[in-house]
Amino acid sequence: MKLGPLLDACAMSVPEGTAAVEVRALAYDSRAAAPGSLFVAIRGFHRDGHDFAADAVRRGAVAVVAERALAAGAPVIVVPDTRAALADLAAELYDHPTRRLRVVGVTGTDGKTTTVHLVSDVLEAAGERTGFATTVDFKLAGRTWANETRQSTQEAVEVQEFFSELLVAGGTWGVLEATSHALALRKLRGCDVDVAVFTNLSPEHLDFHGTLQAYLEAKGILFEMLGRGSDKGVAKTAVLNSDDPHWRYLADRAHGARVLTYGIDALADVQGAITAADANGSRVRITASSQQVDVALPLVGRFNVQNALAAAGAGVAAGVPLATVKTALERARPVRGRMERVDAGQPFTVIVDYAHTPESLDKVLALLRPLTRGRLLAVFGSAGERDRAKRPRLAEVAARYADLFVITQEDPRLEDRASILREIEAGAIGAGKRSGSDYLVIDDRAQAVREAIRRARPGDTVLLAGKGHEGSIIVGEEKLPWDEAGAARDALRDAGFAA
């Protein structure tokens, strides 16, 4: 695309003599700049892209978009907000794919990844061709691959590129996680959302947002987006969890959109009732639009029933018959790293889960406690450079349910490792637990996993929480390879068990 029309379409000034310059790609990392790219300088958490503009030009960038004038060796377009500019440029360069592709966005503290998978399953059962982008993986019209970026929602360039590729591949619906970070940082600006789903809200990412209200307001951006899109033949709908009191605030943000609630305890448009539950899943009666189905959901726990109801609500919003929703939900499979069992023939249970907030850890441990004949053991940590207030609360939750828990690292990043462990341990001490008998502190995560499994006895359950599917541990600024399920298998092998 020519630079002049691209900038004009995004209401940016065109430097003299540059209108005919060819733009082949957008870059926000100077190392990815190549001949013909337009470099957008983003101020990050550890690095400022403005400091690398000249490097991007040396690598072939034809111009720079920045928030201030700078000497880069190429024309510079100054804008008030380069993150917003990046999103606008990406949408224009990829020809606004979401104006033609129907889109479901899922936001909330917990359950986003599983809900995205279930929504995709429901739409596919109705004959649609879907793609999705989650914390765990991507799917593009039948092909899936792991998300190794450690970003739940990609940057605006990758989001628009993904939707463009899905449209070209014949996709009819795109489904994605819409995190609070992504919404606040305008990564989804320029996306035309048709169905917005809210799972739940509890304190998380307060290091970034500052307050729970600001966190909620960031989630609300997704619902505001419903009022700005074009008509693609499906009613703009907010699908909200009526069991979570924050739903009313989000309903108010969905200006002019249809509001569809789902819930178990509260009265809802998509009403769920758990009629039976065990270690293999739940039986759920779902009532919606004067229809009723009984679903044998093969996912464990009340929280997964909530995720299934969210997907049912999205299906109803998209016009999917409830009988088709039932078919899809009964074929559901656990997402990698979400209540994932690791079995090497051992006489105790090992489960890998992504639970990394006090609320999600509470849900998982509360589920496992009555299902465990022996002792319940847990391994968990807390990420560095993230919400410090939750650290002691994680240990308080573990103290409530676990017979033994191991405090370890999750992603220390640039923070002092010992300080992280001390702040988590404060919760254990406050709960009256004793080091060495009630809990252990082991800095090295592989060693922590190995020790928990070494101590497990027949009938016990070992929960490895916090890492889930993630393929790396971030130490400093380096991503070191990590595989939680693989670490469990190694520990089981060392303990004398082999699949």
Overview of this protein structure:
By secondary structure, the protein is of the alpha/beta class. The chain folds into 3 domains: 3-91, MurE/MurF, N-terminal domain (Udp-n-acetylmuramoylalanyl-d-glutamate--2,6- Diaminopimelate Ligase, Chain: A, domain 1); 97-330, UDP-N-acetylmuramoyl-L-alanine:D-glutamate ligase, CATH 3.40.1190.10; 340-494, Mur ligase, C-terminal domain (Protein-Tyrosine Phosphatase, Chain A). 34% of the residues lie in helices and 22% in strands. The strands form 4 sheets. An 11-stranded mixed β-sheet has the order 8-7-6-9-5-10-11-12-13-14-15, with helices on both faces. It has a 6-stranded mixed β-sheet with strand order 16-17-21-18-19-20, sandwiched between helices. Strand 11 (237-241), helix 9 and strand 12 form a beta-alpha-beta unit. The mean pLDDT is 95.
What fold name goes in the CATH topology slot of the largest domain?
UDP-N-acetylmuramoyl-L-alanine:D-glutamate ligase
**CATH class annotation of the largest domain:** Alpha Beta
Q: Give, in spatial order, the strands making up the sheet with the most strands.
A: 8-7-6-9-5-10-11-12-13-14-15
Q: Could you tell me the number of beta strands?
A: 23
Q: Choose one word for the global shape.
A: globular
Head-to-tail CA distance between termini: 55 Å
Largest sheet: 11 strands, mixed
Low-confidence stretches are: none
Average pLDDT: 95
Rg on CA atoms, Å: 24 Å
Total helices: the number is 16
**What is the CATH superfamily classification of the largest domain?**
Mur-like, catalytic domain
Please report which band the strand proportion falls in: under 5%, 5-15%, 15-25%, 25-35%, 35-45% or over 45%. 15-25%
- CATH-defined architecture of the largest domain: 3-Layer(aba) Sandwich
Helix percent band: 25-40%
Q: What's the number of structural domains?
A: 3
**Structural class estimated from helices and strands:** alpha/beta
